[in-house]
Amino acid sequence: MLVTSYQVRSFQLSDSVAVTNLLQNVLCDECYTETMKAFGRQLAWDSELILVAEENEEIVGVVVGTIDKEKAYFYRIAVGQDHQRRGIGQALIEALRQRFVGRKVHRIMVTVDTHNEVVLPVYEKAGYQPDDFSRAAHRLSIVAG
User: Fold this and answer.
1) What is the DSSP letter of 67?
2) How many CA atoms lie within 13 A of 30 on its CB side?
3) How much is the CA Rg of the chain, to the nearest whole Å?
4) Are 133 and 109 in contact (CB under 8 A)?
5) Could you read off the pLDDT of 70-114 as tens digits, one per residue?
6) Is residue 55 within 8 Å of 27, Cβ to Cβ?
7) How many CB atoms lie under 10 A from the CB of residue 111?
8) Neighbours of 107 (CB within 10 A)
9) Computed from CA positions of residues 91, 94, 100, 101, in that sequence, does the dihedral angle turn out positive or negative?
């Protein structure tokens, strides 16, 4: 069995096509459309809260988060189907959690919508409980102006 390693790092503009392709392959059409709009807003607002997992120079996972006032939110996570169940999602969640903690937020929540109900067990495995799940409508940060 070939064992490869991956690294989690900040999103870079050169990752745009690979991340777009990954999201399109993993998410349903409606979820992809919503996610791309939110991704664009978050990228303009605070790109440090978008992380990717890279393996052999290929983007295999992405997590998008945001901070609203003193609360941090995991918005969307996606891992390529050939790379799932290998700890990549957990690594992305932990890396973003560390970014949130570094920003000194008071609470870290997981945004829940109809599209990500299926990945809630991934967050639970990472230690998040049902009271950490936010089902309220929440948009990613938008630059005030």
Assistant:
1) E
2) 4
3) 14
4) yes
5) 899 999 999 998 898 889 999 999 999 999 999 999 999 998 888
6) no
7) 21
8) 12
9) negative
What are the distances in angstroms from CA 8 to CA 5, 111, 114, 145? 10, 21, 27, 33
Token representation of residue 52: 């990717």
In sequence order, the 6+-apart residues with CB closer than 8 A to the CB of 54 are 6, 7, 8, 9, 60
The rounded distance, in Å, linking the Cα atoms of 50 and 13 is 11
* Buried b or exposed e, range 18-50, using 16+ CB within 10 angstroms: bbbebbeebbeeebbebbeebbebbbebbeebb
Q: Which residue is it, tokens 């790379």?
A: 83
Would you tell me how many other CB atoms lie within 10 Å of the CB of residue 86? 17
Six-digit token string for 119: 């990945």
- 42 touches 140 (CB < 8 A): yes
What residue has token string 């609470």?
Answer: 107
* CA neighbor of 25 nearest in space, from 90, 83, 74: 83
E strand map for the chain: 6-10, 50-55, 58-68, 71-79, 107-111, 133-134
Provide the whole-model pTM. Answer: 0.87
